[in-house]
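2024-03-11 09:14:02 INFO receiving multi-entity request
2024-03-11 09:14:02 INFO entity count = two
2024-03-11 09:14:03 INFO echoing inputs for audit
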Amino acid sequence: MKKSTLLLFFLQLILVFPLSAQSDNPDFFRSIGKIYVVVAVIMAVFLGILLFLIYLDRKVTKLENQIKENE
Amino acid sequence: MRKFWWKYLGAAILVYVILAGMLIPLKPGVLEISPSTAQAAQTMTFTVEGYNTNYDKASSSIRAWLRSDDDHGLTASEITVVDYNTLNVTFNIPKWLPYESKVKYFSLILDNEIDGASVLPSAVSLTQEVPNLARAKALWPQGNIKDLHTNEVISFPYRNILYETIRNLYFHVSLWLAMMILFIVSVFYSIKYLRTFNKDFDDKALALTSSGLMFGILGLITGSIWAKHTWGTYWTWQEIKLNMTAVAMLIYAAYFILRSSMEDSERKSRISSVYNIFAFAALIPLLYVIPRLTSSLHPGNGGNPTFGSEDLDNTMRMVFYPAVIGFTLLGLWISTLIYRIEKIKDKLYDRV
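2024-03-11 09:21:47 INFO inference complete, emitting structure
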C-alpha cells in the first residue's frame, strides 16, 4: 500500500467516522449522556498525532535515502 | 534515559488524564421531565428521568419542588419511585402563580440523601387564567427549599446539554493552551535567532511551530465534533471564536508556505523568524481579545474571564491542569524530533 493512500485512509477515519456512525443511528452519539462524543474527540486527537508521526516517518525515510545516495 | 525524564513524565500524565477524565463519574442530575406544560389549578403527575441517580436506594428521603426565579417554591405532594432513575412526582398546582404574566417557566429541584440536590432549569411552563400576585405569594412560600444535601463523591459537574461531553475540556481546551505555550516558546527562539543568527534557534522555532499548529488543527477538529453534538452544527459562521481561530491557523499555515518558497537558507531563516513574531502578535488579539468583545457560544466569552468557578470546579481542575502540562510535554517531545530531523538536514545539505 502506498503511503499516500494510507494517509488518505486515516484522514477518512477522522472525518467520516463521526458522520457514518451517526447516519446509522441518529441517537448513537446522544446515548448514555453523549459519552461517545468524548470517545470521538479522543480518537480524533489520537489519529491526528498518528498522522503527524506518519508525516515525520516519511521525512526521516527521505533523509535516509539521501544519505544512501551520498555514500 | 535519565536525560529524557520529561518525555516519560508527559506520557504518564496523559495516561492519568485519560484514565481520570474517563473514569470519574458525573454528578447525579435530572435529564427530562414530561409533560413539560401544565395548567394552574390542577393536580398534575410528572414523570422525571434522572441520570446517575439512586432513587430506589434513597426513596424515603426524596423531596421535590417547582421553583420560580425569585425563590418561590411549591413542594411536591406525592413522590413515587419507579426505578433507580425514574420518578413520578405529583404537584397540586395552585390557581395563582407568583407572577403577573400568564405563562411562566419553573425549575424542578430534586433532593435526596445519596445523590444530593439537582436542578432542571426551565423544566415546566405553567399557565394561569387570572394573575393574582398577593394570593399567590401565600401559596408559593419563599425560602421553603432548604436543608439540601450535597454529594460528597468525587465527580464532575452535571450540565444539561453538555452531559458527559464536559470531559472534552481535557481533550479540547488543553490542546489550545498547549498550542499557546508552544507558540510562545517558538517566538522566543525566533527572537533569539534574529539576535544571534544562529541556525539552531531557527530550527527550534520551526519545530515548535509545527507541533503547535498540529495541536491547533486538532483543536479545531475536536471542537467541531463537540459543537455538532452540543450546538447542533459542525461549524457556524456566527460564532466569532471559530472564525478568528481559523484565521489564526491560516496565518500560521502561511509560515510553512513562506519557508518552502525560499531557496536561500539564511534568507529563509530571517524572513520566517520575522514572520513568526508578527503571526504571534496577530494570534493574541484573534484568540483572546476579539472573541471577548462580542457574544460567543464559548463559555467565558463576551466579557468574562475564560475560566469562572461556574464552569470549572476543583475536581475538574485536578484533571485539566495536568492535561495542559501533559499535552505541552508531548508537543515538546514531537518538537525535538522535528528539530533533530532539521539538524540532520542542515548537515546533509551543508547549511549552517
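2024-03-11 09:21:48 INFO post-check: Helices of chain A lie at 3-24, 35-70.
2024-03-11 09:21:48 INFO post-check: The first helix of chain A runs from residue 3 to 24.
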